[in-house]
Amino acid sequence: MENKPLAERMRPKTLDDYIGQKHLVGEGKVLRKMIESGVVSSFILWGPPGVGKTTLAMIIAEQLERPFYVLSAVSSGVKDVREVIQKAESQRFFNTPNPILFIDEIHRFSKAQQDSLLAAVEKGTVTLIGATTENPSFEVISPLLSRCQVYVLKAQEKADLEELIDKALTKDFYLKEKNILVKEKEALISFSGGDARKLLNILELVVNAQTGDPIVVDNETVRKELQENPLMYDKDGEQHYDIISAMIKSIRGSDPNAALYYMARMLEGGEDPKFIARRLIISASEDIGLANPNAMLIANACFEAVHKIGMPEARIPLAECLIYLATSPKSNSAYLAINRAMEVVKKTANVAVPLYLRNAPTKLMKELNYGKDYKYAHDFPGNFVDQEYMPEELKNTVLYYPQNNAQEIKIFERLKNCLLYTSPSPRD
Fold first, then answer.
1. Does domain 238-327 have CATH number 1.20.272.10?
2. Which of 402, 391, 400 is nearest to 424 (CA)?
3. Among 258, 334, 260, which Cα is nearest to 291's?
4. Exposed / middle / buried, residue 289 (Cβ in 10 Å: 0-12, 13-18, 19+)
5. In DSSP terms, which residues pair with 182 in a beta bridge?
6. CA angle 386–388–394, rounded 5-degree value
7. What is the CATH number of domain 21-152?
8. Which residues contact 150 (CB under 8 A, 6 or more apart)?
9. Which of 21, 23, 211, 315 is most buried, taking the most CB atoms under 10 A from its CB?
10. CB neighbours of residue 15 within 10 Å
11. What is the pLDDT of residues 193-247, one digit of tens each?
């Protein structure tokens, strides 16, 4: 048997053998058209592990018959980059297509390493193909990013993974000689997490672990061999932000079930529970706000509890707080109000505070009319007096609009004494 893992043996050599990513390599799609035209510009492939980034780069180089240089951000430094560029320059002749430089995990390249690529990419000395599992807008320097198109690769779909299993069983020279009976594919696909390489590794592991005839692959056998589900969650990467975003949006959308699901994914993936607790405090102020001021108190209490007890028990106050927030009435009036106020301040930062609102701790200040004619609200009925508190240039400016919920309707009723408030909200 060839001493290569199944994933490597099954690596496609042409676009027609390539499974998945039809939005990029299907008939008439952008990468296929680029390859067919023979004119390839620098680009970055962004997607999760095992979706075919390296394979796609290799296919492009093979089909275009270009020299193909590979650098890994993990093991290559600035010196290695410069050596490749010098080699590419020395091999350039008139009408000779430029070589392809493939950089795996380009997000791990330092700024200096990325800077060393700029001139070569700009001059066309090399065509850069970068592969990254992280958002390139965060990890790739702007000058380099502006010279590259970004193409997003998706996790493999169920149909693609099923096709890959069938193909491995019928095409791989080793597996096709064995009597393999695949009764169920669900566990194989679930454990792979949309990662084609992981799927083939799991299939190979399960097959090699059995000696019977036929070799039976079903959900129970897969679970037995793997013991537990290796969760797809990178707490330092893109998924970290995707899943916390989904959790917060689920709270905002009043869906406690989805919010619990995303929180459980983070906790099972080893996320710091204090990070989750901090985000719950933000959600309490941004999304629940004045519709239920108790939400902030509960979120703060949750953080304290998580800090004191740690995991695994911290999951309980986290869940309690999350459910409370998700099922609470919502208002972003405070969030919108402070944003409006800060926009106004940016435009009018230096307007003077009215004299009657200024403090007058000294005799001179009193002589200059600091504090003169100030009306003390508590001296008037209802603790309210018709007095302008904004600077003259901003007179009658409204920044806070109560929203239509039980708590803020009460606030609006109180504010109606001020003639500026004629309706609860600009949305009403």
1. yes
2. 402
3. 334
4. buried
5. 217
6. 145
7. 3.40.50.300
8. 43, 44, 46, 136
9. 21
10. 19
11. 778 888 898 898 888 888 888 888 888 888 888 775 445 555 555 566 788 889 9
Q: Positive or negative, the Cα torsion across 336, 339, 341, 347?
A: negative
Q: Are 300 and 281 in contact (CB under 8 A)?
A: yes
pTM above 0.70, yes or no: no
φ/ψ region of 396 (left if φ > 0, alpha if ψ in -120 to 50, else beta) reads left
And the tokens for 357?
A: 């609102």
Q: Is CATH 1.20.1730.10 the classification given to domain 158-226?
A: no
The residue written with tokens 């901090």 in the block is 278
In CATH terms, the superfamily for domain 333-415 is DNA polymerase III clamp loader subunits, C-terminal domain (1.10.3710.10)
| Tens-place pLDDT, residues 284-321 | 999 999 999 999 999 999 999 998 998 889 999 999 99
Token code pair at residue 270: 């080893």
Strand order in 68-72's β-sheet?
A: 68-72, 100-104, 127-132, 43-46, 149-152
* 335: exposed, middle or buried (Cβ count in 10 Å: 0-12, 13-18, 19+): middle
Q: Is 187 helix (H, G, I), strand (E, B) or coil?
A: helix
Nearest-10 Cα torsion for 204, 210, 215, 217: -60
Q: Where are the beta strands (DSSP E) in 190-283?
A: 215-217
CB atoms within 10 A of CB 377: 11
